[in-house]
Amino acid sequence: MTEFHAQDPTRGKSVGVALDPTTIVGKVVVGFIVGTIVGLTGIGGGMLLLPLLISVLGVPPIIAVGSDAVINCATKIGAGWLHFRRGNVDRRLVQRLAYGSIPGAIFGVIFLSWVRSAYGDRVNDFLKVFIGILLIVIPTAFLFKKYLVLPQTTFGTTDENRYPFGVTLIGFIAGNLVGITSIGAGSVILMLLFVLYGYSPTVLIGTDIVHGVLLAGLTGLLQRGFGNVDLTLTAFVLIGSIPGGLLGAHLTKHVPSHRLRQGLCATLVAVGARMLWVTIRHAK
Questions:
Q1: End-to-end alpha-carbon separation of the chain, Å?
Q2: Which residue in 115, 186, 198, 254 has its CB near the most CB atoms, within 10 A?
Q3: What percentage of the chain carries pLDDT values higher than 90?
């Protein structure tokens, strides 16, 4: 059994934590499962990984949020580079999103740090409630997104040049969510741009991934500075998620991903509702 020192999520002190083979395997397996599902369905890794880190591995929510940001950045680098080489990235859209998301992420991380300093370990209950709400709202919107698209939206023709502030506002909203929960870089931006603007799906996905590298990278650095990142956890999850993503991408030819995506969204809604109910019930 190996022992390492991890930071206490509420007091900033170093505490000894036993790291046995079962724990290591569990983290790698969680990463592999998330990577496979993301590669197969395209649903955001943060939305999948965060509840698993909290509910399955028992990671304190504030450490799960910080570590998840670093993991998201690392897993998107390869895909982002590939999309960039293939011409699937709208650089101006990345820039306009970043104008909002960068200050949004900074504000979100600072706000989370303030909640932690003001309320101590109650910050974890705050995060569980916030994350539970997002796990209900985002997958539900994803399930019904075809009913949300504006009638005038036509893929390939965009109103982004007419409403640049709207894109920046979307970035700011997503940046805040990522800074506080690490959820939202892909799911929220894709959803809102899909509903409100007429980008082709290929360009939208490639642009979102490249922007996600910047946003998650900055957020991960900020979270690391506040002591909210477990690098050991991050490393073991990445060991599983990278090959899992490759396997998931390969399985798309053989598995009906549309049905799997629907079932996964329904499961996430149930997980979010349970997390919300348990947290509120214990707070009484």
A1: 39
A2: 186
A3: 31
What is the arithmetic mean of pLDDT over 146-153?
Answer: 54
Cα dist from 178 to 16, 38, 209, whole Å: 29, 18, 14
What secondary structure, in 3-state letters, does the chain show? CEEEEEECCCCCCEEEEEECHHHHHHHHHHHHHHHHHHHHHCCCHHHHHHHHHHHCCCCCHHHHHHHHHHHHHHHHHHHHHHHHHCCCCCHHHHHHHHHHHHHHHHHHHHHHHHHHHHHHHHHHHHHHHHHHHHHHHHHHHHHCHHHHCCCCCECCECCCCCCHHHHHHHHHHHHHHHHHHCCCCCHHHHHHHHHHCCCCHHHHHHHHHHHHHHHHHHHHHHHHHCCCCCHHHHHHHHHHHHHHHHHHHHHCCCCCHHHHHHHHHHHHHHHHHHHHHHHHHHHC
CB 181 within 8 A of CB 134: yes
Place of tokens 């080489």: 85
Residue keyed to tokens 């982002």: 80
CB 209 within 8 A of CB 52: no
For 208-259, the pLDDT digits (tens) are 888 988 999 999 999 999 999 999 999 999 999 888 887 876 776 677 666 7
> Any idea what the Cα angle at residue 72 is, between residues 66 and 77, rounded to 5°?
135
Question: What's the pLDDT tens digit per position in 107-127?
Answer: 999 999 999 999 888 899 999
For 142, the token pair is: 């994803």
Which tokens in the block code for residue 24?
């290591």
